[in-house]
């Protein structure tokens, strides 16, 4: 500070004054930070740590046994199947919906956007119930399905349908605002240069929204693998047959087999951590990309 | 502005597919609930949805959701403020962790919270000597619903706080306003629409929640039984008409909340545009 010039000193004073004007005294600042961290630790960190400690409470052997159980294995498999079907279905829908909504003007667009949001507003239990009303034994197609020996409810198709319903809006919701913000000049330029509609989609539109797309897929996948309420209604809880991982956790827990329940739960918690990490990575990437473009131009 | 003819291809295909898929997965199945409920007479319907046990479940579901959303409004605003305005070690990780309730399956959250708050759990064993029981009481429902709604307020308020210009705050300070006055007169008026939206989202999510609640609630009829559980119970007793009637009540409330939230978001966006 010895050789600070007077102008630097004035700048410094101005900065201090501005900080004082737009910030709080240190003691308030640190109490607010502590209070927020206390709240977040109580509600986020403690439950997360509890999953892993409860899972390992009876030792690593019990943990490994619980996960290598055939019922646990078939639950993992069914969860993957449900996610592998519902993610691509909702991905294709999300691209189609955002193309129609972001690139064209038509009447009733706002109503359509609200309708796409509907599955978020519906309770998961109600989501399961509506499929029982249609495909269940007493439902609309119930007698036809049982005549043809097709099982939807208390079988895998019902679980997939319920999963598709609860994860329906995720990709569309990410893509619509993103595509709206990007406009359609690039697509029109592609068209003038002779590209076909599919070429425009593959070479221009999708590369432009790839991070939003990936973000939507991550959210869809996380929800698909973790869904409980909707799947619970349509599954019938048949062990080794129609149990997903979350349902298997419930069964083990209700049998007071806590160590095994938390062991399967720890896999799902690990999946949640991977989801959060991927999400942060995508957010970081998509925040980085626009600045790069600005640098070039 | 002259209407420019849109030359891009694929409108009919993409809109047609969107409407077909939306109808098959969402609209037709949802209409099944209303059609099924319409086979009941109005008296029967009213009798089912106002039965004492169902009424008690509404009180618990709405009461606990409201308390949970209020807790989230307060601590969500605090968290958003701390994350935007201050810097401290580990901030980025904590910011990412706020989304944990979105990523963690609800059943996992349910058993974890139950383990912590039961009488020999980490937190439950501290509260037990003071006569506070959390697990298997309505208080447990509030805890679970606070957990699952936690990210909404943070994520709606955070971007608005980030966009806030500090010039107005400097001007307020130069005119002699203290920080508290600046907050209540300058900052709060620009963030309250986002705060209300986050609160409504958190509340709407809590109303329909099932997975995280059933483990910690204890599920005693008239005391700690939530409305989605009533639907499940009726289904398990093959009372499809009863389950559907209660589901229709929940659906109508969800639709109302969805419209309210969309209206709020539209209002917030318009306000923000006016400011710019």
List its salient traits.
heterodimer; A: about 300 residues; mainly alpha; about 80% helix; B: about 280 residues; MetI-like fold; 13 helices; about 0% strand
Oligomeric state of the chains in view: heterodimer
Instruction: Indicate the structural class of chain B.
Output: mainly alpha
The helix count of chain B comes to 13
Please tally the β strands of chain B and state the result. 0
Helical percentage of chain A: over 70%
Strand content of chain B: under 5%
CA radius of gyration of chain B is 23 Å
Helix content of chain B: over 70%
- What is the end-to-end distance of chain A? 40 Å
Structurally, the number of domains of chain B stands at 1
Instruction: Specify the CATH architecture of chain B.
Output: Orthogonal Bundle
Strand content of chain A: under 5%
Question: In terms of topology, how is this protein built?
Answer:
The complex is a heterodimer of chains A (297) and B (276).
Chain A: H1 6-22, H2 26-56, H3 59-68, H4 70-103, H5 109-121, H6 124-135, H7 142-147, H8 156-166, H9 170-182, H10 185-192, H11 197-208, H12 210-226, H13 229-235, H14 245-254, H15 258-296
Helix pairs in contact in A: 2-15, 3-15, 4-8, 4-9, 4-12, 4-14, 6-8, 6-13, 8-13, 9-12, 10-11, 12-15, 14-15
Chain B: H1 11-37, H2 42-49, H3 52-85, H4 91-97, H5 100-103, H6 106-117, H7 124-127, H8 138-163, H9 167-174, H10 179-208, H11 211-217, H12 227-236, H13 240-275
Task: Give the gist of this structure.
Chain A is an all-alpha fold and 297 residues long. Chain A has helices at residues 6-22, 26-56, 59-68, 70-103, 109-121, 124-135, 142-147, 156-166, 170-182, 185-192, 197-208, 210-226, 229-235, 245-254, 258-296. Mean pLDDT of chain A is 89; it is low at 291-297.
């Amino acid at each position: 500070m010895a050789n600070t010039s007077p102008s630097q000193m004035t700048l410094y004073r101005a900065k201090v004054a501005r900080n004082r004007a737009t910030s709080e005294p240190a003691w308030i600042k640190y109490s607010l930070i502590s209070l927020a961290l206390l709240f977040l630790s109580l509600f986020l960190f403690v439950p997360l740590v509890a999953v892993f400690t409860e899972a390992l409470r009876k030792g690593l052997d019990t943990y490994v046994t619980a996960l290598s159980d055939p019922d646990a294995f078939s639950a993992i498999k069914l969860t993957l199947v449900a996610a592998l079907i519902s993610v691509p279905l909702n991905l294709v829908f999300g691209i189609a919906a955002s193309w129609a909504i972001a690139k064209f003007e038509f009447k009733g667009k706002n109503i359509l956007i609200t309708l796409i949001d509907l599955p978020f507003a519906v309770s998961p239990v109600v989501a399961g119930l509506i499929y029982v009303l249609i495909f269940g034994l007493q439902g609309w197609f119930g007698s036809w399905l049982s005549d043809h020996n097709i099982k939807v409810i208390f079988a895998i198709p019902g679980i997939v349908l319920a999963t598709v319903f609860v994860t329906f809006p995720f990709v569309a919701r990410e893509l619509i605002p993103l595509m709206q913000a990007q406009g359609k000049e690039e697509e029109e330029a592609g068209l003038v240069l002779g590209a076909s509609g599919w070429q425009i989609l593959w070479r221009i539109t999708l590369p432009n929204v790839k991070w939003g797309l990936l973000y939507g897929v991550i959210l869809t996948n996380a929800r698909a693998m973790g869904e409980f309420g909707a799947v619970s209604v349509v599954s019938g809880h048949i062990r080794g047959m129609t149990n997903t991982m979350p349902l298997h956790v419930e069964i083990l827990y209700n049998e007071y087999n806590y160590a095994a329940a938390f062991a399967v739960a720890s896999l799902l918690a690990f999946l949640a951590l991977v989801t959060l990490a991927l999400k942060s990575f995508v957010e970081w990437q998509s925040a980085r990309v626009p600045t790069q473009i600005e640098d070039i131009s | 502005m002259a209407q420019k003819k849109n030359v891009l291809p694929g409108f009919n295909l993409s809109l047609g597919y969107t409407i077909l898929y939306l109808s098959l997965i969402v609209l037709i199945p949802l209409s099944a609930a209303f059609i099924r409920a319409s086979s009941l007479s109005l008296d029967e319907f009213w009798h089912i949805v106002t039965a004492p046990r169902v009424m008690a479940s509404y009180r618990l579901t709405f009461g606990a959701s409201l308390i949970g959303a209020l807790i989230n409004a307060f601590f969500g605003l605090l968290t958003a403020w701390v994350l935007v305005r201050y810097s401290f070690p580990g901030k980025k990780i904590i910011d990412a962790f706020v989304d944990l309730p979105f990523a963690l399956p609800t059943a996992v959250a349910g058993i974890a919270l139950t383990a912590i708050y039961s009488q020999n759990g980490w937190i439950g064993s501290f509260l037990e000597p003071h006569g506070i029981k959390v697990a298997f009481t309505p208080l447990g429902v509030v805890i679970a619903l606070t957990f699952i709604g936690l990210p909404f307020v943070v994520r709606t308020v955070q971007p608005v706080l980030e966009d806030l210009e500090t010039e107005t705050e400097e001007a307020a300070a130069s005119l002699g306003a203290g920080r508290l006055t600046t907050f209540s007169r300058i900052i709060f008026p620009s963030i309250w629409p986002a705060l209300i939206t986050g609160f409504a989202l958190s509340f709407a999510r809590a109303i329909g929640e099932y997975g995280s609640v059933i483990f910690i609630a204890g599920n005693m009829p008239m005391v700690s039984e939530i409305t989605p559980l009533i639907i499940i119970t009726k289904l398990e007793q093959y009372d499809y008409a009863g389950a559907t009637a209660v589901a229709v009540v929940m659906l109508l409330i969800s639709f109302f909340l969805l419209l309210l939230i969309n209206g709020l978001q539209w209002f917030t966006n318009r306000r923000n545009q006016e400011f710019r």
